[in-house]
Amino acid sequence: MLNRALLADMIGDAYRIIEAEDGKQAVAALQKEGTGISLVLLDYVMPQMNGFDVLEVMNRNGWIKDIPVIMVSAESDAAYIERAYELGVTDFINRPYDVNIVRRRVMNTLMLYQKQRTLMGMVADQVYEREKSNNLMVYILSHIVEFRNGESGMHVLNVQAMTEMILTQLTAMTDQYALTAEDISLITMASSLHDIGKIAIPEEVLNKPGRFTDEEFAIMKTHSAVGSDMLDDLELYKDEKLVKLAREICRWHHERWDGRGYPDGLAGDEIPISAQVVALADVYDALTSARVYKPPFSHDEALRMIREGECGAFNPLILECLTAVADDLESRLNRGVTGREISVDSLRVVDSAREAGEAEASSRTLELLDYERMKYHFFASMSNEVQFEYTAEPPMIVLSDWGDRKLGLPEIIMDPYQDEAFCAVFGAGNLRDLCHRLRATTPEAPLVDMEMEATVGGETRWLHVLARALWSDENPPTYLGSLGKFVDIDDRQAELHDLQFKAYHDPLTEVVNGAFARKVITERLGAEGECDRHDDRHVLIVCDLDFFKQANDTHGHQFGDRVLQHFADRLRDSVRSDDVVARVGGDEFLLCMGCSVDPRPLVERIHRSLEGEFEGFPLSVSMGVATTDGGVRGYDELFRRADVALYHKKRDGRGGYVFYDDLSDQERAFSLDEPCTALSGIDRNDSDQ
């Protein structure tokens, strides 16, 4: 703390200073602020991570290229100093400090890097201007060809857009063709010149509205060779990569995978991948665009014709790419939107800034980054979401400003999976699950969507987690971390739980209803009448509260409701928590339980626990019992047997229970005509009074 205070006083009030007590805090500040940090004064001896560890992280993340570091240390050993310079430090200051040396070296380093950024900005502007001019010239040249051909100027842009989409998808699916980002950019630009040879085709052939004769088609086919010859004649530039790509696209974009194309009859991967992709893009846009000889086909029809080989054979891998990008084609095409156009549009900000007389490019870039950072923090605070960014090396999580206040956690947490407070909020098991899911993603499918319980302010709440894993560009890729958000959905979960409870439970007694009981029991008995545990015995009991009508008639319906609630409570108390207790009628209830021993003592105990009295009203219970003995596993048959047993019990006298297995064959053959149970028929009998 004393060393930091001394340095801060020496540097003065001209700068905003961020202090870090150790190496991990330093990395956290760099992670959060990025290029908003202009200079790092770094000691070697620090807790958690030493200065060299911090420099290694800065090198791994590429920060050392943009953020200068001055090493400040009492270590004067030449090996330390050499190691520091190897890791990219700009300067080295020994303790004890000299105020003039510290100020001058800080100022010089900042000025040096500012000049470097200015030069980089100037170079970037020049590259942009050159890139824009190249794009413009290529577009003008290709547009002249399309204009002479009577086609829409959008054809060139559509082929460009589709070429870039398919190449990008191809690199995501396979490394078979080893295409770099530069390759994709050059092929996309060169695709604009695919039909340049049509300049040499007579107009009466080029724009003929009807079908070509054999002679006319032979003339038309020469445009591919003519285009490549034109580019071959560029003596000064024919060795340029762009010209080479444009030449192979011009010559071979009408070749086909099965060797039936022209002009050279190449087959398979004899055809350069650039020409293969442009060929597919050219065919798709030709199908979906109006021509002098045909109306446009729909997007779906064009895809069908290409997949079914009506336009020639294509590389199956490229057809897979077409399928993968098919949903985006219609929205991207006919607008000329490619990665190249998007980047050029964004760089037009530079033109506006220059006209407005603003500062150099590097300053504009930093201002834009600060603006984006400000927008991020604003939307994070307004969305009531806990947004986060996690880095795997070093392990660290940064929470949004609003998020750390809501959760009661610090904004930056080192080693979050080992942090007690962080694990107490989210649960160690939940965090392990989230970590496993993120690391199980791929660069092509990086999203994780899950729900978890968290403890917020001492209260358990449900959170929806949406996260994206970050992967390196290496092969194989390395997991770098993740970013995402936690959304509080506890109120929604509570509403859903309440709706589910109401759907599955009887509103008066709060035991489950008959429909849900049927579902649960069917699952326990086994799907389609087959039990997954053949040694199980299940007992199903149908209960009826005798003389319940007298309770309503004598004491009123509110009293009758209390009787039913009391009876349901006693039913629940008489069985285990995982046994099924349901109300299946007015005063009719159902029990279902597993019982591996003789069920008769169990049924006797349950019956005794149910009988008694409630507020002076005698409770008498009749029960019919059926078991799965003998291989009965269907719910309907089991319920029917218990219902038949109950019918005979009530017919012979109320109170007590009867097992279906104890009935005679004649009694078992009895058929109940009531739609649900036989009980209501007996209850309507005058003898029930």
UniProtKB/TrEMBL annotation:
Keywords (alphabetical) are: Phosphoprotein
Which residues does the UniProt record annotate as the domain Response regulatory? 1-110
The cross-references to SUPFAM superfamilies, in alphabetical order and at most eight, read: CheY-like, HD-domain/PDEase-like, Nucleotide cyclase
GO BP terms: phosphorelay signal transduction system
The record's section on InterPro entries has: CheY-like_superfamily, Cyclic_di-GMP/3'3'-cGAMP_PDE, GGDEF_dom, HD/PDEase_dom, HD_GYP_dom, Nucleotide_cyclase, Rev_trsase/Diguanyl_cyclase, Sig_transdc_resp-reg_receiver
Q: Which residues carry this modification: 4-aspartylphosphate?
A: 43
Question: SMART domains recorded for this chain?
Answer: GGDEF, HDc, REC
Q: Does the keyword Phosphoprotein apply?
A: yes
CDD domains from the entry?
Answer: GGDEF, HDc
Q: Which Pfam family, any one of them, does this sequence belong to? A: HD_5
Which Gene3D superfamilies does this UniProt record tie to the protein?
A: 3.30.70.270, 3.40.50.2300, Hypothetical protein af1432
Q: GGDEF domain spans which residues? A: 536-662
Q: Which residues form the HD-GYP domain?
A: 130-338
Q: Which domain of life is it from?
A: Bacteria
Tell me which NCBIfam families the record gives.
GGDEF
Q: What is this protein called?
A: Diguanylate cyclase
Q: Which organism is it from?
A: Adlercreutzia muris
